[in-house]
TrEMBL record:
Protein name as catalogued: p-cumate dioxygenase large subunit
UniProt keywords, alphabetically: 2Fe-2S, Dioxygenase, Iron, Iron-sulfur, Metal-binding, NAD, Oxidoreductase
GO molecular function: 2 iron, 2 sulfur cluster binding; dioxygenase activity; iron ion binding; monooxygenase activity; oxidoreductase activity, acting on paired donors, with incorporation or reduction of molecular oxygen
Family: Belongs to the bacterial ring-hydroxylating dioxygenase alpha subunit family.
Stretches assigned to the Rieske domain: 41-139
Species name: Rhodococcus opacus (strain B4)
The organism's place on the tree of life at top rank: Bacteria
Length: 437
């Protein structure tokens, strides 16, 4: 083993291991900042979060502070939130509406399309700052898909659609849930955990841990007469209860399994969902509507955008490393547009009681990941993690680990340059009538 070897991908013995050094080394993190967060498409926000002219949200994207906003003409922008004078933030609010961003340090002012328009004491400069510096910088590439905005700091990176490839089908399954489209519920969950960001990537697409870590939730569901995920009898579009895992080029992956149960949903909430499903069936056909409303889906879009649809909630999550052992998470709930107040309340309740940092699911996950990070203290003695489950099966189940291996192979390619073949599993998207799927 060389110091460079981070994964062991042994096809003969169906063994896949990850070097625990990858989760603890600050040197690895520096390489990730350059090769991953500097060169891939990173999620910044959804268009519904800045509905009107001059609306803005500030975000941290891959370690860069940005303003995600609409300018005075209503065009979406992403501006780097750093003053050209000496670096201070030009916008210190998390969201709002502003035509001008004024740096609080010495007062340089920028229009919300970026141009530098006022410099106090401008007459003291021999070369005018506005002419020299022009305006706030933007990431090299900004693009969107179905209302989701992404940035890429690498001007030479392939475009967003090429990068997402077939995996974008899972964004469609979320975005098509209402004829009017979808929106982000106001309010975000922000929390940090003392664990490496890649542990949260694994966890977000890990069907194996559900039964042990989330047994409280499972017990609650069973008390309410619902069947916990991956344990039922129903198949949906030919997908068995245990579900299936998928791999896509560029490290994206999804696991899916029949959705089961709407904990604490009222009849009205169930009716709203049934109505949306009927509309989808008419627009796109039965297969696609079944996939949309009958299958639960956990997707990762490389490197760290997660979209999880469990029918009772549809959550979007992204996270970036603070250090090798700390990660900052932001989570949102998505709702189909045009639903009634009661449905919105159900989703808000769900966001708080299940997905949120004090909900039924997240604290258990955080605890498991922080324990793992602590365990890596013994990496000198126990140096490798195992990600082999289901390897070699023609169709790995949702509680196997194909999706993580797919992600790790892309991570490895970007960090070491070593290109490893996929496992060759294939996924045929459920046909979407009348639309080019
Ligand atoms: S740092 Fe912004 S005006 Fe000086
Ligand atoms: Fe979990």
């Amino acid at each position: 083993m060389t110091a460079e070897q981070f994964i062991i991908d042994d096809r003969e013995n169906n063994l896949f291991r990850v070097n625990r050094e990858a989760f603890t080394s600050e040197d690895v993190l520096q390489r990730e900042r350059k090769e991953i967060f500097g060169k891939t498409w990173l999620y910044v926000g959804h268009e519904s979060e800045i509905p009107g002219k001059n609306d803005f949200q500030t975000r941290d994207v891959g370690g860069r502070p940005v303003i995600f906003n609409r300018d005075r003409h209503g065009d979406v922008r992403v501006l780097l939130n750093t003053c050209l004078h000496r670096g201070s933030s030009v916008c210190r609010h998390s969201s709002g509406n502003a035509k001008i961003f004024t740096c609080f340090y010495h007062g340089w002012a920028y229009r919300n399309s970026g141009e530098l328009v006022n410099v106090p004491g401008n007459e003291d400069y021999k070369s005018e700052p506005a002419a020299v510096y022009k305006g706030l910088q933007s990431p090299a590439q900004v693009d969107s898909y179905r209302g989701l905005y992404f940035v890429n700091f690498d001007p030479d990176a392939p475009d967003l659609l090429t990068f997402l490839g077939e995996a974008r089908y899972f964004i469609d399954l979320a975005a098509d849930q209402s004829p009017e489209g979808v929106a982000i519920l106001e309010g975000t969950h922000k929390y940090s955990l003392k664990a490496n960001w890649k542990l949260l990537v694994e966890n977000s697409i890990d069907g194996y841990h559900a039964k042990s870590v989330h047994h409280t939730h499972f017990e609650m569901m069973m008390e309410l007469g619902a069947t916990p995920p991956m344990l039922g009898k129903d198949t949906v579009n030919g997908i068995a209860p245990a579900g299936m895992g998928t791999e896509f080029p560029n490290g994206h992956a999804t696991l899916m399994y029949p959705a089961n149960g709407l904990p604490l949903a009222t009849d009205s909430v169930k009716q709203t969902l049934a109505g949306l499903r009927a509309q989808a069936e008419q627009a796109f056909g039965e297969n696609y509507a079944n996939a949309m409303f009958g299958l639960a889906r956990n997707s990762v879009f490389f490197p760290s955008l997660i979209l999880i649809d469990l029918s009772f909630g549809l959550t979007l999550r992204t996270f970036y490393p603070v250090s090798a052992s700390e990660t900052l998470v932001t989570g949102w709930q998505i709702i189909p547009k045009g639903v009634d107040e009661e449905f919105v309340k159900y989703r808000i309740d769900n966001a708080l009681t299940f997905w949120g940092p004090a909900g039924l699911a997240t604290p258990d996950d955080v605890e498991a990941l922080e324990q793992a990070q602590k365990g890596f203290g013994a990496r000198g003695e126990v140096g490798w993690s195992d990600v082999s489950k289901g390897m070699g099966k023609p169709v790995p189940a949702a509680n196997d680990e194909l999706q993580m291996r797919s992600w790790w192979r892309e991570w490895n390619r970007r960090i070491t340059g070593e290109q490893l073949p996929t496992e060759g599993t294939s996924f045929v998207p459920f046909d979407k009538q009348g639309v080019d799927a």
